[in-house]
Design a protein that fits this description.
Elements: E1 2-3, E2 11-12, E3 17-18, E4 23-30, E5 35-36, E6 41-51, E7 56-57, E8 62-64, E9 70-73, E10 78-79, E11 84-86, E12 89-90, E13 95-96, E14 101-102, E15 107-108, E16 113-114, E17 119-120, E18 125-126, E19 130-133, E20 138-142, H1 145-168, H2 192-196
Parallel strand pairs: 1-4, 2-4, 3-5, 4-6, 5-7, 6-8, 6-9, 7-10, 8-11, 9-12, 10-13, 11-14, 12-15, 13-16, 14-17, 15-18, 16-19
Antiparallel strand pairs: 19-20
Protein name: Transferase hexapeptide repeat family protein
Pfam family, one: Hexapep
Keywords: Transferase
Length: 199
C-alpha cells in the first residue's frame, strides 16, 4: 500500500519491490533493487526517509522519525526482520539484525553489524566496521574482511529478490496435497556460524 500524505507522494524506482502488505507513506524515496517485505511500515509523514539502492527492509520492520528529521539507509543496508529504525542513519553495507532497535540521531558507520535484539540509544555514533550487540548496545569487536564478504553475499541475494518477486509472486489457492515432484530449494547461503565457525 502506497499512500500520499500532506502532498508528499512516495517515489519508488521501478526495479524496487514493495510487497502489497507493506505500507509506504508520504515523503519516502526508494532506490533501485530495493526489497520491502510484507508488514513493513515506512512512514514518511513527519520527515523524510531515503532508502538508497540495493537495500532491503524485511518483514515487519518499522522506519519512522521525529518531525523534520531524515532517516537514511545507505546503499546495501540490510534491515533484518522486525527491526526498528527511528530517525537514524544506517551506513553503507550495514547489517541490522532481527528485532534490533536503532534510535534517533544514531549514526551507524559503514560495514558494521548490529546483532539481533540490540538496542542502540539515541545520539550514539558507531564507528565503521563495528560489531554491536546487547541492550544497551556494546561494541564488542571489529568486522573482519571475511565477515564483510559474507554479509555482502547475503545482501546480493536480496538484491535479486525484487526481480524474482516481479516475475513470479502472485496470489494463489493452496494445494491440498504435497506434489511428488516438488523441487528442493538450494542451500546457496549459510549463517555466519556455519560458514566461519565463530560467534
Amino acid at each position: 500500500m502506497i499512500y500520499e500524505f500532506n502532498g508528499y507522494i512516495p517515489v519508488v524506482h521501478e526495479s524496487a519491490f514493495v510487497h502489497p502488505q507493506a505500507t509506504v507513506t508520504g515523503n519516502v524515496i526508494i532506490g533501485q533493487n530495493v526489497y520491502i517485505g510484507p508488514g513493513a511500515a515506512i512512514r514518511g509523514d513527519w520527515g523524510e526517509i531515503i532508502i538508497e539502492d540495493n537495500c532491503n527492509v524485511q518483514e515487519n520492520c518499522t522506519i519512522h522519525m521525529f518531525p523534520g528529521t531524515t532517516v537514511l539507509l545507505k546503499k546495501m543496508a540490510h534491515i533484518g526482520h522486525g527491526a526498528i529504525i527511528h530517525g537514524a542513519t544506517v551506513g553503507r553495507n550495514v547489517m541490522v539484525g532481527m528485532n534490533a532497535v536503532v534510535m534517533d540521531r544514531v549514526e551507524i558507520g559503514d560495514e558494521s553489524v548490529v546483532g539481533a535484539l540490540c538496542f542502540i540509544r539515541a545520539d550514539e555514533k558507531i564507528p565503521a566496521r563495528s560489531v554491536v550487540v546487547g541492550n544497551p548496545h556494546k561494541i564488542v569487536k571489529q568486522v573482519s574482511d571475511a565477515m564483510v564478504a559474507w554479509k555482502t553475499e547475503g545482501t546480493q541475494i536480496y538484491m535479486g529478490l525484487p526481480a524474482d518477486c516481479h516475475a513470479t509472486l502472485k496470489p494463489c489457492e493452496p494445494l491440498r496435497e504435497l506434489p511428488e515432484n516438488r523441487k528442493k530449494q538450494e542451500a546457496a547461503y549459510k549463517t555466519w556460524n556455519e560458514t566461519k565457525g565463530e560467534v
